[in-house]
UniProtKB/TrEMBL annotation:
The keyword Isomerase applies. Belongs to the pseudouridine synthase RluA family. Residues 188-273 form the Pseudouridine synthase RsuA/RluA-like domain. Coiled coil: none annotated. GO terms for molecular function: pseudouridine synthase activity; RNA binding. This is Pseudouridine synthase RsuA/RluA-like domain-containing protein. The lineage of its organism: Eukaryota, Sar, Stramenopiles, Ochrophyta, Bacillariophyta. It comes from Cyclostephanos tholiformis. The keyword RNA-binding applies. Keywords: Isomerase, RNA-binding. InterPro entries: PsdUridine_synth_cat_dom_sf (IPR020103), PsdUridine_synth_RluA-like_CS (IPR006224), PsdUridine_synth_RsuA/RluA (IPR006145), RluA_PseudoU_synthase (IPR050188), S4_RNA-bd_sf (IPR036986).
Length: 675
């Protein structure tokens, strides 16, 4: 009872204010830090300010040569543009002061500030946070405190850093625009997002995000507060992104997508092997028709009574259009369980409460009582473009559809044609076969963003099984390239699970060719890219092996971890000691200069033996080192995966109440134009 009372009091203390009266934490661009013993020094600059953000853009094909030469100026970058006309560009943001701010959470109350930062934030070791608290870079409600200060309800915690962002890819050199506008009107803008570019600020990305780049590019049209995200698209995925110009439209379209209400999404992907032979080891493509793949759903013809003209009770075959699919949204269709054979089933718990996502204040006991058991299916079946079941179609029929047919022609057959202004739409060939695949998914690690798919028969823990979700995707084959042994496929996700298309392709035995997270290979088919990646990694490892010694001078160890990058590898204690812990603030030194001088990530860019002071020469060398390392880290990461959002469709009503379908489509990516 005492524990319950304590939790109730904590919730009351931390109770959020109404939105109109809520005080926001003082975070953002600029510095909020204790300047000596005086008042809190506040230097806040609005986001998307061109006076603060400095960006450098380089063509990817010349990135490695620029690093070797040590050149960082744009005059060098812009020479010989003709030779890199069709090359992709890389955008680098130079470091800037930034204050992370948050109000204290209920679980932090009573803990020391040093414990909270060490336990909750993993970018630095404890030694850094203790040094930052003592130096006044970490404040509580604008006040400098000791490391053993215990957090109270309502405290505002701020941490000012020298922020580094990873590099991102832009459009190719054929245009000066950072991204391609597919369609724009008074209420919505559709853009073709390059791979590696996140939609909105998240994680280590801030100004290197789609919304911020659009705001910097056209502040009058796309500035802060003028664009609203409708949906998400993974950072490594390229393609169509819809952005609303009003919050009401964003909510409406977002609801349409999340509730699967009249919305259809179509992606294209380039996968390993000849799709879908990866699953056809024992399938009807064999000469023996009795050999079935265990995942293959097979329809058993049912007899119906009441055939007119044949006498009362005379049996007749069920018409094709009346054949229901074995699954709906990846869940087993219990009403037709006797009509389908094959496939695997996985038990899952579903919530019958229609307001599941809105029941934050509902009685949890009621919600638990409304949970029922269902079954997620693992299996595949054939249907045509309109969803009519094709019970006699084989994988061989599916494959031969695209024999000797150009990619563009197959694309027209699969999803029709669309004009630039969305005024004309050519219907698709509904007779084209689609392979429908149902396979449950779950998030394996929320922190690392890793998922998995399968039947989960070995997953016994009920807490882990709660995360299993039914999922379903439809695939069509566009082309096969024997030289690279890759296939170009279309994918229509029926559900919207995290990494669903990537997981389903991997499970089918045809992972996206360059998706190294799910069975692919980084720099697939690009030997020059592999060489550059390898040499860049070697250069980074040498840079991180700055030697430090113990007090007796005998033990040596690297200051930074091998295979580290600024964005995803925490700083080590040795780096903290070298860059920050043993470098006090000098008299008359500004807080901005002090933060830059003691920046761990700048020290990692220079190498642990690189010295930095506040001289102009030292700052210039530091800038060059930051540029080189940021570009090197981009080269050892994924340049994006071969998964492209191609088309979005919404069913709406016009002014007269007539049904209308809005379609937005972008171009096939360069990797999608197979020979």
């Amino acid at each position: 009872e005492a524990k319950k009372l304590q939790n109730h009091l904590l919730r009351w203390i931390m109770k959020s204010r109404p939105k109109r009266n809520r005080k926001r934490p003082r975070g953002g661009i600029g510095c909020l830090a204790k300047d000596g013993e005086g008042e809190c020094n506040i230097d806040e600059i609005p986001q998307s300010s061109s006076s603060l953000i400095r960006a450098e853009i380089v063509p990817l094909s010349r990135a490695f040569d620029l690093i070797i030469a040590g050149e960082v100026r744009s005059e060098v970058i812009r020479t010989n543009q003709d030779s890199v006309e069709r090359e992709r560009r890389v955008r680098i943001i130079f470091p800037y002061p930034f204050t992370f701010a948050t109000f204290a959470k209920a679980r932090w109350v009573g803990k020391t500030i040093a414990d909270v930062y060490h336990d909750e934030f993993g970018s630095y070791p404890r030694s850094y946070y203790e040094a930052a608290i003592k130096a006044g870079r970490i404040l509580v409600s604008g006040t400098k405190v000791d490391c053993d200060y215990k957090i109270k309800g309502g405290d505002e915690l701020t941490h000012t850093v020298h922020r580094h962002e990873p590099a991102v890819g832009l459009t190719d050199m054929s245009s000066n625009d950072p991204v391609r506008i597919v369609n724009e009107n008074e209420i919505l803008v559709a853009v073709d997002k390059p791979a590696t570019l996140p939609i909105h600020p998240c994680g280590g990305y801030n100004f290197n995000s789609l919304l911020e780049i659009l705001a910097h590019w056209k502040p009058d049209s796309f500035g802060p507060g003028k664009l609203f995200t409708v949906h998400r698209l993974d950072r490594l995925t390229s393609g169509l992104v819809l952005i609303a110009k009003t919050s009401s439209l964003a909510r409406s379209l977002g609801k349409c997508i999340s509730e699967r209400d009249g919305c259809e999404k179509i992606y294209t992907a380039r996968v390993k092997g000849k799709f879908p032979l990866g699953l056809a080891q024992v399938s009807r493509i064999d000469s023996n028709p009795l050999h079935y793949h265990p995942w293959e759903f097979r329809y058993s013809v049912q007899n119906c009574e009441g055939d007119e003209g044949a006498g009362e009770g005379y049996p007749k075959k069920r018409p094709k259009r009346a054949i229901p699919p074995p699954c709906q949204y990846g869940e087993w269709n219990n009403f037709e369980s006797k009509s389908w054979k094959g496939g695997l089933l996985t038990s899952i718990m579903i919530n019958d409460c229609d307001q599941k996502k809105k029941c934050g204040n509902c009685d949890l006991s009621i919600i638990e009582s409304q949970k029922t058991q269902s079954y997620a299916a693992l299996g595949y079946w054939m249907a045509d473009g309109s969803g009519v079941i094709a019970p006699n179609a084989s994988l061989g029929d599916f494959i031969t559809q695209c024999d000797s047919v150009p990619v563009e022609e197959m694309l027209k057959r699969a999803i029709g044609t669309i004009s630039e202004t969305d005024e004309y739409f050519g219907a698709a060939d509904q007779s084209l076969l689609w392979l429908n695949f149902a396979c449950p998914c779950r998030i394996l690690s929320h922190k690392n963003g890793v998922c998995e798919a399968g039947d989960f028969a070995d997953l016994k823990d009920q807490n882990d099984r709660k995360g299993i979700k039914a999922a379903q995707t439809s695939f069509a084959l566009l082309s096969y390239d024997a030289l690279s042994d890759t296939s170009l496929v279309l994918a229509k996700p029926v559900t919207g699970r995290m990494h669903q298309i990537r997981l389903h392709l991997q499970k089918l035995g045809h992972p996206i060719a360059n998706d190294h997270c799910y069975g692919g290979e980084l720099w697939f088919g690009d030997e020059e890219g592999k060489r550059i990646c390898s040499e860049s990694r070697e250069w980074l490892n040498l840079l991180d092996r700055g030697i430090e010694t113990t007090s007796d001078g005998d033990v040596k160890f690297p200051a930074a971890l091998v295979n580290s990058t600024n964005a995803d590898t925490p700083a080590s204690d040795a780096e903290i000691y070298h860059a920050a812990a043993n470098r006090p603030r000098e008299d008359g030194e500004s807080i901005l200069d002090f933060i830059e001088k003691t920046c761990v990530w700048c020290a990692r860019c220079r190498g642990t033996d690189g010295f930095f002071d506040n001289s102009s020469e030292s700052k210039l060398k530091n800038e060059s080192a930051v540029f080189r390392r940021t570009l090197m880290e981009y080269l050892v990461r994924s340049q994006g995966i071969w998964l492209h959002a191609l088309q979005y469709s919404f069913k709406t009503h016009d002014e007269t109440g007539q049904d209308r379908t809005l379609r937005y489509r972008t171009q096939l990516p360069s990797w999608g134009k197979l020979l």
